[in-house]
What we know:
A: alpha/beta; Rossmann fold; disordered C terminus; B: about 20% strand
Amino acid sequence: MARELWKGNEAIAEAAVRAGLEAYFGYPITPQTELLEYLAVRMPALGRAFLQAESELAAINMVYGAAVAGARTMTSSSSPGVSLMQEALSYIAATEVPMVLVDMMRGGPGLGNLAPTQADYFQLVKGGGHGDYRPIVLAPDSVQEAVDLTYVSFDLAERYRNIVIIAADGNIGQMMEPVEMPPLRERPPVGSVDRGWELTGAVGRPRRIAHSLNLSPEEMARVNASLQNKAAAIAAHEVRYSERFAEDADLLVVAFGSAARIAQTAVRQAREEGLNVGLFRPISLFPFPTDRLAHLATRAQRLLVVELNAGQMLEDVRLAAGAYAPIDFFGRMGGVLPMPDEIYDAIRSAYPHVGGNGNGKGKRSLPAGMRPLTGSWSERMSLN
Amino acid sequence: MEHQIIISGFGGQGVLFAGQLLAYAGLAEGKHVTWIPSYGPEMRGGTANCTVILSDEEIGSPQIRYPSAVIALNPPSLVKYAKLVKPGGCLVLDASLIDSRAGREDVREIAVRAKEIAEGLGYPQMANVVAIGALVAATGALRMETVEDVLIAKTARKRPEMREPNLAALRAGAAVATATVH
Amino acid sequence: MIGNLIPVYERPHALTETVTHYCPGCTHGLIHKLVAETLDEMGVTEQTIGVASVGCSVFSYNYFNCDFASAAHGRAPAMATGIKRVHPDRIVFTYQGDGDLAAIGTGEIIHTAARNENITVIFVNNGIYGMTGGQMAPTTLPGMKTTSSPAGRDVKLTGAPIRMSEMLATLDGPAFIARRSVHNPANVNRTRKAIRAAFEAQRQGLGFSIVEILSSCPVNWGKTPVDALKFIEDGMLPYYPLGDFKVSEAMKALLRA
């Protein structure tokens, strides 16, 4: 199939349509609004449900309704809107119904700004709402990958009866790149195939209840255990990552999403100049590619984590690899986008043979935004 | 080979469309391409810019600090980007709106009176197309025929009368670039 | 001969055998029965999907014998919207109290009504938060003592109670908006008819319907069940008049027929 130029937001919307999205509910917020606008045209044309809600709060609860009703359903938003959705996300996780959320992260906290950041890693990956649950979180670094992950996200959501989040930012949402679109799926009408849990009216079967209230601690514990077992199954089967020159890297850069895209340019430049640098890019943020990263860290002499935040995925990297290699961090906050040359400078500083780590040649001169993380947590916090 | 192009001007000058023209042409030539705009409130008046990368290889960062080529369609854009163009790069500016020059010895500077040329054709909004003609001719980033085909497809499919003015604008810009001896 | 006896009363099919958790004298159980009888009469119990709210009626999903979802606090109309948009041929209703509908869920109910969403809302108004033990609701009467307004509701501090039906009736969309009460048999019968009308509106695709039902809360009002019913009449009716606040033209035609 021919490749076409697609803007990220619209490409994700079209991929969702082709994956069989049956009901979309959303609310305008920059930088994801094109997604809503695109579906406002596309969904009614296909006879599928589209509704602009009065708030993100209403939108996600409409999604909750559509999900318990058995539809392939989705909403999309950006950071402040996703904060509003956290209550319902917790309910949806507890009810174990499938849905997809696209979050085009923007600068925060607060009303923040519209610029690309990754400052909602904790919120998205660690649960966000109350209670102990884990959404599957997928972070594309290109428009094509955003399409591919969106397409598969509905299958994952249904396979595990779980929330799947596409975590990106305005860089991915606003960018145009060539895309090969997957085919439009033919799917049976909603409710025509019974999977044993959806609410369609109790015709010829016992009634069903979709709820998240479990007053008995024992029953709540059982639900929690089920959620944890599911998270373990997801962790065992759904890890996704990408590597460039990672196997033999002395310095391994770890970055996801658009930060990885920027880092890729810097890594390539460093390679061209003979530095033994590689790039490890988690695609699934939950499940985090812990085992693979640990394996690479036993080989690499040093890790450099690059994020568009103050160091959030960094904590997962430390958990995975902190025992095997020292870790540096380069971050940019508030939507200030690092340019490849800044990450290149960070690579030069962190590089084991060039930057002087561990070779006794004195203090490194660190680029702004970079801090060494070889010390304890408290030492790290005392650094600016 | 990788061309990193920034197009910058006021909102309404067709900055984003000009960038998309390059991206579509790059795609038509089988290149790797990215197009990324400045977005948000900037879109409502004020400055607008976009970055286009055309490459024979997979593209890393869609944004770069040091472009290989720049189109500046207003004075603030020249001030902002003139100093960032890579040595050996190319700078196209609309001389009907910008009095000053970058004056860099290591950059090919092409002052094209894009708006005046476009007005002469009867379509002042085609200044962006004039500038694209100059940039493509100066950099060789794309074949001119590809750009012409894409331009016609994007502008004249439903309005055939737009075909000739658009092609004339593109070629007028290219002619200025060809005539500009560095 | 037992076999020749004709049952004059039996538990509606649309209610489960479950014993409810409602307090003695509470009228939630009665209202459940009216809704269940309506679903049975219309023969739609198996085509119905209910949405429970948060508050005393949170467990209504255990009592109705149809598919049921449990919404987050105040969000039942949004959740019902999602269900109805996916299954437009099903009967979808929410069952909400006044804390749920008139406080935390005000936005959702107004916009669902404004969209003329083809669902039915059963709105039980007892002027107090029952489940959490008797706090002031947006519907609590002026001067009424609650655990969070121990000196009586001071409207200078908290504003006056919200008349939801009247407020929603200003919208163009809704098909049927009515307030009823269950403080005596005559009013119970009127409530039953209004509930039937509301569900018929939905079945005919006329759009949004809501029946606000004044209900008693003896425990949190600190009254005997009988006195609580009397309080509906003497205390609530003067502030919350009964009646039909919005009957669309199509609905009028339906009611005539």
